[in-house]
């Protein structure tokens, strides 16, 4: 297994602003909040190598593994993960779309895996209902992390691969739900958005929209943002 990726090595939103990877916007959707700039991260790479308290698996309804991120997580975690998932949903009972369940991480660097089932995109289906289901994936995953004393969580791009959810809409849902959750909860210190290796286009979408949900404040435009490695262990809200 590759060496685990330490959270301290993954750039925060504040650091992305500081090195001009992302840029402030004039018409941000949410107001500036300096403390959030060190709580949200963006990373392109393999989610199975990140050393956080929980990684999120974009699972299918059986929770038994599949292709893409789902298959990679099951492979890296070992067969005990599939067994744990079978115990969550014995027989043929599927996990509902928008729901989330948690298991140990087994052989992964992460302590836990949170399995969530995103919607399959269809232009002929109810787009509002699908957006609500995808938003639920993020809300329930974040809440499960807090309920299980996790301080850090890493998300893949739920439903955007073989499930076909448009990346622009999916990104905005992910950012909105994370912003709202972190506003009301200081138990979760770090959220990492993980882009699959080589998906530069997906990363650019995140870089474009992050400033609308996590903008710079007036004081941040003229001074550097404190890097994670020197930040306090607790978050002051």
User: Which H/E pattern describes the elements?
Assistant: EHEEEHHEEHEHEH
| Gyration radius from CA atoms, angstroms | 17 Å
Total beta-strand segments: 8
What value does the average pLDDT take? 90
Which CATH class is shown?
A: Alpha Beta
Structural class per helix/strand content? alpha/beta
Shape: globular
Q: Counting H and I runs of at least 4 residues, what is the number of helices?
A: 6
> What's the helical proportion of residues?
25-40%
Number of domains: 1
Q: Identify the strand order in the major beta sheet.
A: 2-8-7-4-6-5
Fold topology:
Elements: E1 5-6, H1 13-18, E2 40-44, E3 50-51, E4 54-59, H2 68-77, H3 79-88, E5 100-104, E6 112-117, H4 127-147, E7 152-155, H5 167-184, E8 190-195, H6 200-213
Helix pairs in contact: 4-5, 5-6
Domain Macro: 27-214
Protein name: Macro domain-containing protein
Pfam families: Macro
Descriptive account of the structure:
The chain is α/β, with parallel strands linked by helices. It has one domain: Leucine Aminopeptidase, subunit E, domain 1, CATH 3.40.220.10. 33% of the residues lie in helices and 15% in strands. The chain contains six helices and eight strands, in the order βαβββααββαβαβα. It has a six-stranded mixed β-sheet, with helices on both faces. The chain has a two-stranded parallel sheet with strand order 1-3. A hairpin with a 7-residue loop joins strand 5 and strand 6. Helix 4 runs parallel beside helix 5 and helix 5 packs across helix 6. It is globular. This is Macro domain-containing protein.
């Amino acid at each position: 297994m590759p060496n685990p990726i330490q959270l301290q090595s993954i750039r925060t939103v504040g650091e992305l602003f500081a090195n001009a990877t992302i840029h402030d916007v004039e018409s941000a959707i949410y107001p500036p909040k300096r403390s959030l700039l060190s709580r949200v991260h963006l990373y392109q790479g393999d989610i199975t190598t990140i050393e956080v308290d929980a990684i999120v698996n974009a699972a299918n309804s059986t929770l038994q593994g599949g292709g893409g991120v789902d298959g990679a997580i099951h492979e890296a975690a070992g067969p005990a993960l599939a067994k744990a998932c079978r115990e969550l949903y014995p027989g043929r009972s599927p996990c509902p779309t928008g729901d989330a369940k948690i298991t140990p991480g087994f052989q992964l660097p992460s302590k836990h895996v949170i399995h969530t089932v995103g919607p399959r995109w269809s232009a002929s289906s109810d787009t509002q209902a699908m957006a609500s289901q995808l938003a639920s994936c993020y809300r329930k995953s974040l809440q499960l992390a807090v309920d299980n004393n996790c301080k850090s969580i890493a998300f893949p791009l739920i439903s955007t691969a073989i499930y076909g959810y448009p990346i622009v809409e999916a990104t905005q849902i992910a950012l909105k739900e994370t912003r709202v959750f972190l506003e009301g909860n200081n138990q979760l210190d770090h959220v990492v958005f993980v882009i699959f290796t080589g998906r530069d286009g997906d990363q650019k979408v995140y870089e474009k929209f992050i400033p609308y949900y996590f903008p710079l404040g007036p004081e941040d435009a003229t001074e550097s943002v404190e890097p994670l490695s020197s930040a306090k262990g607790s978050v002051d809200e």
